[in-house]
Amino acid sequence: MAVSMATVLSTHTKKIIANAPYFFISADEVTSIDHQSRLSLPICVVVGFKRVSILLALQHLVEENGAIAVLEAILTNLNHHGGLLRNQIAEKRVTFGADGVSVFQGSRTGVTTHLKEKHAPFMLGVHCMDSLHELGCSAYH
What we know:
alpha/beta, five-stranded mixed sheet, 6 helices
C-alpha cells in the first residue's frame, strides 16, 4: 500500500514540476547531534496562480560536504524526484536560495555559482534573508 501511494505521489510531483515554467528551490544543509549531515530541498512552483510547496528531498550526505557533493545531490534529486533532466533545468526559469555559507554562496566554488555557470545560465541566486538579518543583528552585540 505504501509503495503504491509513494508511486502515485512521485508521479504527481513530477507532473507538477514538469508543467511549471519556473521553480524556486531552496537548500539547507543541517548537521544533527550525531554528526550526520542532511540536505533539505524544498521546491516551490506556481500552478494556476497558486504557490505549491513540495519537499523534494531530505537526503543524507555521506560524502565530504563540499559544493560539488551538494550540487550533485541537488541535480540528482531534481531528476529522481522532480523528473527533470540536467538539460531541462536550463529551460526553466530557476531561482535558487540558500544561506550564506561558502558551500552555497562562494563566488568561485559555491553551489549557486556552479548551478548558474553549468546548468541554469539565467538563474537568480538569492541569499537567505533570515541569515542576512541574523548576521546584521549579531554585528551590534
